[in-house]
Amino acid sequence: KQEVTQIPAALSVPEGENLVLNCSFTDSAIYNLQWFRQDPGKGLTSLLLIQSSQREQTSGRLNASLDKSSGRSTLYIAASQPGDSATYLCAVSQSGGSYIPTFGRGTSLIVHP
Amino acid sequence: GAVVSQHPSWVICKSGTSVKIECRSLDFQATTMFWYRQFPKQSLMLMATSNEGSKATYEQGVEKDKFLINHASLTLSTLTVTSAHPEDSSFYICSATGQASNYGYTFGSGTRLTVV
User: Fold this and answer.
1) From the CA of A39, how many Å to the nearest CA of chain B?
2) pLDDT tens digit string along A30-47?
């Protein structure tokens, strides 16, 4: 059974710092990996989707990498802003099956001015 | 981009009544929809998976007679919480995907259910 772990669970940084959020998974036979953002009391917003054949994806100040063999993905946030404050969730979809994603518990990020 | 609309965003109901939550894919055909429940400061717990025109597949421990799921079309799935009790109070989120999950998953904005 796939298990997804996110480290750290919480992070508080001053504005302007570059951040790295980590996601690890136990079964490397994945179909894709997706990073989401969740604001308090809201649904999930997709940030980046990485297919199993890809190594990284970029969108603006966000860059996500994928290393299937080691079961790891990182989300890099450049020049953090207070508006980046949210919970970031990593979800892994398994290949050869129903593709139902398994979620990590998230990293709660606070960027203070 | 793909958009999923979920309504209502919040609802308060009396114990014993039923509540229906709708999830619509606005600009794509959702072959598969998922319903999740989220407790405070916890990750998402998958409740059930539904494919259009088929009965939903429920995760272990989820009462299918209590949480009725209907996926009658490629753009609409509904979750009905029947005979709601205070312990059913939670944040419910739907998700949809089209074709193979190459397109990833698009989530609704969630529904905060409070049963009093």
Assistant:
1) 10
2) 989 999 999 988 888 999
